[in-house]
Amino acid sequence: MTATASTVDGAAEEAGRVARTPDDAPRNPRAVVALLLRGPGGVVRAVGLVCVVVGLSARGPVDAALFALVLAGLVVPLAGRVAPGLDAAYGVGLLAAAWCGALGLYERVAWLDVAAHLVVTGLVAAVAHLVVARRTGAVVEPAHATGPAARFASVAVTASLGLALSVAWEVGEYLGNAYVDAEIHVGYADTVGDLVMGGLGSAVAGVVLLRRRSAA
User: Fold this and answer.
1) Model pTM?
2) Tens digits of per-residue pLDDT, 189-212?
3) Residue 154 in contact with residue 209, Cβ under 8 Å?
4) Quick one: how far is CA 30 from the chain centroid?
5) Could you give the CA distance from residue 143 to residue 132 in angstroms, rounded to a whole number?
6) How far is CA 139 from CA 68, 136, 177, 200, in A?
């Protein structure tokens, strides 16, 4: 009876440790699954997995690869202990952007590409800032930006990360057009416009992070 109680207490202590430090990788597969599916972001990750299956079975290799990349991205917020609301919004943004591309909506709706780069890049930049700050300590975390200089630096970091990721995305689009599928749209005006909208969205996200830093 004593041994059983000790075992239960040990399991409870381990569960509490995982709950207190979600950035630590749980060793139990069930704990890993529980972490991935926790909260509204977990629901989005489950939907992302379904999208990969749909891509593999009904959409073709290009869309399957796209949704697999998105699914990998959906796990990123867990590394930065991102707030549940931002976790879910980020995931929904990534999935919506992917489906718009897969269904060719960007070519049919002129403003949709601009809106996607503005909003989704902002969400990605916000998550990236929190992950880099909390995992490496190399940049200013919004929660610690108390003076004018620190607050400006925090917004600048978010905007810079968004711009850097936008550049990486545009390079990926170019490579995809050149070597994977010629239907992937690229062009000088499109690229510059995407970068401008991505930078603007990321700067706005940096300001929002400061205003909501207590909740993050």
Assistant:
1) 0.81
2) 888 888 999 999 999 999 999 887
3) yes
4) 23
5) 13
6) 29, 8, 34, 20
